[in-house]
């Protein structure tokens, strides 16, 4: 095989976290950056070890949600809700992926909230109890399906895909959190956890975007010669 054969795999800039079963992500870069900041060179030798990354995920996940839970307890508002979990994981596992950008996160959740509430209005369920306590009816089935369909379609149309927003819209269309006041609180929580992600990733030296996703390098315009 020729030395410049394009079929050959090129070396990656960063070693795999797990060479046998690669799990991808940029988590090792975040851990390395934070350890550099804390000036603990003896830990840097193992920054990409799967156990170290697992511990980082555990601690960071606990801190992220604990902050929101504390605010929820102090203010007696729904500052904590299920779809914050996958959003936090995206922030610290693949922070440079488009779905993890502030624009996609905030706009995606906003679309989910609007679609969920609109589905309640269309099906006449704005005053109904949550599906978990009153049961699932045909109007509720329609509301859930409509909310998820609208969310998925609108995110694609607006070019702001953020998978956790699919859970957010179901939280609303299933009646778990549905009042306008609660929806505003949810958006505030999304903005706060996004700010936290920005601070931690930038502290680690990750060029996490201020708003929109970082554009990938442009590929060559000329197609390869056959």
TrEMBL record:
Regions that span the bilayer: 47-71, 77-94, 106-126, 138-160, 181-200
Residue span of region Disordered: 1-24
Assigned keywords, A-Z: Membrane, Transmembrane, Transmembrane helix
Keyword Disulfide bond carried by entry: no
Any coiled-coil regions, as ranges: none
InterPro entries: HPP, TM_HPP
UniProt domain HPP transmembrane region: residue ranges: 55-209
Xref: Pfam families: TM_HPP (PF04982)
Keyword NAD: no
Name used for this protein in its record: HPP family protein
């Amino acid at each position: 095989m020729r030395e410049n054969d394009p079929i050959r795999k090129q070396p990656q800039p960063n070693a795999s976290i797990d060479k046998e079963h690669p799990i991808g992500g940029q988590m090792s870069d975040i851990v390395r950056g934070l350890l550099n900041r804390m000036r603990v060179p003896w830990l840097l030798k193992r920054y990409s070890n799967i156990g170290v990354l697992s511990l980082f995920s555990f601690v960071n996940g606990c801190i992220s949600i604990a902050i929101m839970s504390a605010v929820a307890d102090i203010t007696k508002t729904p500052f904590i809700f299920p779809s914050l979990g996958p959003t936090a994981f995206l922030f610290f596992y693949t922070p440079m992926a488009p779905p993890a950008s502030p624009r996609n996160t905030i706009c995606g959740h906003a679309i989910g909230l609007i679609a969920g509430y609109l589905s309640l209005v269309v099906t006449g369920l704005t005053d109904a109890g949550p599906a978990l306590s009153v049961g699932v009816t045909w109007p509720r089935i329609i509301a859930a399906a409509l909310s998820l369909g609208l969310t998925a379609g609108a995110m694609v149309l607006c070019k702001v895909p953020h998978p956790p927003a699919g859970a957010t819209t179901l939280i609303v269309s299933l009646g778990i959190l549905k009042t306008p006041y609660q929806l505003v609180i949810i958006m505030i929580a999304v903005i706060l956890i996004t700010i936290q992600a920005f601070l931690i990733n930038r502290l680690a030296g990750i060029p996490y975007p201020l708003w929109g996703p970082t554009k990938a390098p442009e590929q060559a315009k000329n197609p390869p010669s056959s």
